[in-house]
Write a structure and sequence with these properties.
The protein is of the alpha/beta class and about 450 residues long. About 50% of the residues lie in helices and about 10% in strands. It binds adenosine-5'-triphosphate and magnesium ion. The site of magnesium ion has 3 residues, from helix 9.
Length: about 450
Amino acid sequence: MSLEEALKMADKIVFEKTGQHLDDLQKAVLQGTLKRKRYRQIAEDFDYSESCIRGVGAELWKIISEELGEDVNKSNFRSAMERWQSLNNSNFAQEVVAISSFNICEKERHSPDISNSHQPKQQKSHPTQPTTPHQDLDEMPELGDFYNRTTELETLTTWILQQHCHLIALTGIIGIGKTTLAVKLVHQIKDNFDYVIWRSLETSPTFAEFQADLVQFFSQSEPQNSLENTQKSLPLIKYLQKHPCLVILDDIHHLFSSGEFAGKYKPGYEEYDSFFKQIEKLSHESCLLLIGWEEPIKLAQLKSKKTPIPILQLTGLDITSAKEILRDYGLTEIEKWERLIHHYQGNPLWLKSVATQIQEFGENLIELLPDNTILLPEDLKDTLQQQSDRLSKTEKQILKLLVMKNQPVSLAQLLETTQTSPSDLLNTLQSLCRRSLIEKQENLYSVPSVLREYYIESD
Ligand SMILES: Nc1ncnc2c1ncn2[C@@H]1O[C@H](COP(=O)(O)OP(=O)(O)OP(=O)(O)O)[C@@H](O)[C@H]1O
Ligand SMILES: [Mg+2]
C-alpha cells in the first residue's frame, strides 16, 4: 500500500467518525508514522513541540481505533490500513473473515486448558506480531482476553512516561495477572522508546549472562561505525544511557532464595542489585520494569530525591471482570456463582481453574455444594504450593497461626502469643505482606480465604 493510499484510507476513516477531513498537522503525523519516524523527528521536521505531535498522534489512534474496533497505534497503523483496505475491497472477504474470527473466538472461549493459558514463559509472540529491529519481544507472551485494569495501566503509564521513573516493580500473588498487564502496557507505550526488550528470568541467569545477552542485542541493533568501533562491548548501563529503552524483566523471583524472607538474592546474584542501583541513580531516559512474586528486598534502600521506588502490588480484577472470565468458560448462570467467586478475589488464574472444574461437573453443581464452599482444583493447589514452598521457617509458623485463628489478628495479639522475637515477627509479617500471602487492614492481619482453605487442606 502506498503512502498516499494509506493517507486516503485514514482520511476516510477519520471523516466517517468526525465529519472532518485530516488537517495538515494530522497528515504530517501520519506521514511521519508511515515513514517510521519517531515523534521527536516529526516534531523537528515540522517545527512543533514533541508533546503537541504526541497529542495529535494519540487523538488519531483513538479515533481510528474506535472506528475500526481494534487497537491501532503508531506501530501497527500501516498494517491496520492494509487490513482495512483488503476487507473493504471485497464483501466476500469480509464475510469470510467475520466467520473465521467468530470460530476462532468460540474455540478459545471454550478452551478449558488452564495450564496452557498460564504458561506464558514457553509461549512465543504471535508470528505476525510486528517486531522492528529495536524491539526484542520474542519472550513476551501474546495478549489474550483482557479485562479492565484501566487504573493500573494509567498508574504505570504515568510513572513511566510522565514521571520518567527509572525503576518500577510490579508484584503480586501467583496468577493475579502481572505478566498480562505488562504485555498490555508494552502494546500501549512501546513507541515511546528506541528499544523495547522483554526477558523472563525463569532460568535464573546470572547477571553476567543476562548482561551479555542484552549487550549482544544492542550491539547487533546499533548502526555500524558507532559504538562497535571501540571493538570492546560496553557495559549494559551504557546502552541504556545512550538510548531511551524500556526493559521488562519478568519472573524476577527466580533471582531470590527459597526458605528466606521475600526478595533476598540467591548467593551469587547480588550483582543485579548493583545494576538496579545504577539504573536508579544515573542519568538516562530508560525504564526497567521488574515483575514477580516479590520485589528485591533492597529496593526500599534505592530511593532517590526522597521518593521511594514505585511498586504496584497488583490485586484482583473487579467482580464484573471475574464474571466475564466465567462466561468465557461457557458458564451461563453466573449470578448463582457470585458467592463462590467472591472468595477468589478476582485472581484470573484461580477463576479460570475453578471455571474449568465447574464446567466439567455442570452448573447444577452449585445446588449440591454446602454454603461457603471453596473449590480447590488440583492445578490451583499446585500453583499455590509453588509459592508456599518459598517461605522461610518463621513465615510458615506465623502463617499457620493466622490460618488457625480464623479471624483477623492484631499485632498486639501476635506479639503476645508467639515465641518469635518482636523484631523477627515484624520482619516476618512484612515479608508475608510483600508476597501477598496475608492481608493487613488497620493493624489486623488475616489470610485470604482461598489460601486459608489451601493451608487447612494441605496440613
Ligand atoms: N486482565 C485480565 N483479563 C483477562 N484475563 C486475564 C487478565 N489478567 C490475567 N489474565 C489471565 O490470567 C492468567 C494469569 O495471568 P498472568 O500469567 O498474567 O499472571 P501472573 O501474575 O503473571 O502469574 P505468575 O505469578 O505465575 O507469573 C492468564 O491465563 C491470563 O490470560
Ligand atoms: Mg507472570
